[in-house]
Amino acid sequence: MRKDSVSLSKITRPRFTRIYQRTSLYRLLNELSSAPLIMVNGMPGSGKTTLVAGYVEYRNIPCLWYRLDRDDEDLSVFFHYLTTAALRANPHMKAELPYVPPQRVFDVSSRIKQYFHNLFQCLETPFLIVFDDYNEVPADALLHDVIREACSELPQGGRIILIGRNECPSNMACVIADRTTAVITGEDLQLSPGELKEIAALHGVMLSSNEAAPATS
User: Fold this and answer.
1) I need a surface site. Which of 7, 12, 38, 175 has the fewest CB within 10 A?
2) What is the model's pTM?
């Protein structure tokens, strides 16, 4: 794949009009600020991406946003776009991001650690790095090990958010064991009847209490 053939939408944070501010979940994300890794898991349409994008805007926090897809199995693609995202965020960054050759991760682990160490030096803290569509990464992909290395290099005030449909891949188990990891689940993302009414009103639709009530089986 030609690296210049993919739109910069891959590394552009989505922006929504008339977004509903889920302040209770924003407070939860604030409370989880000590967790270097946050996983936001839920079914399609549950509002995962909207929640995180809204939080970034609400907090006005520096953020690198990366939308993953199967092309990122090729680590040269991943590091190319992550470097591009970093340069967009800080065009004058002084730390050089080392080249990471497309080899097995354990063969270039020190180079990957140095890459993320330098990258994080270029970002103003506090900062977020969001990897959206994490479910697109196959379970056996080396990228999971790369993310694990990134988490190990995070400075105080830096956080990584993974947005996906699935539970944590087995490759990430050591991250959970070694460092605090927070998880926001589909249950957390569920809207209350009051929130449903407010969202509908935001779009010019008035719902009755019965219409906003969740369906029962």
Assistant:
1) 7
2) 0.83
- Give me 41's structure tokens: 């898991």
The per-residue b/e assignment along 129-145, b for 16 or more CB within 10 angstroms, e otherwise, is: bbbbbbbbbeeebbbbb
How far are the Cα atoms of 52, 105, 200 from residue 18, in angstroms, in the given order? 15, 42, 11
Q: State the Cα–Cα distance between residues 93 and 105, nearest whole angstrom.
A: 26
Mean pLDDT of 86-91: 83
Tell me if residue 52 falls in helix, strand or coil.
helix
pLDDT at site 216: 44
Enter the tokens of residue 73. Answer: 């199995």
> Distance between CA atoms of 103 and 173, rounded to whole angstroms?
22
Q: Rounded mean pLDDT of 17-30?
A: 88
**214 secondary structure, DSSP code:** P
Q: What pairs with residue 40 in β-bridges?
A: 163, 184
Residue 138 is which amino acid?
P
Strand order in the sheet with 127-132: 63-67, 127-132, 158-164, 37-41, 181-184
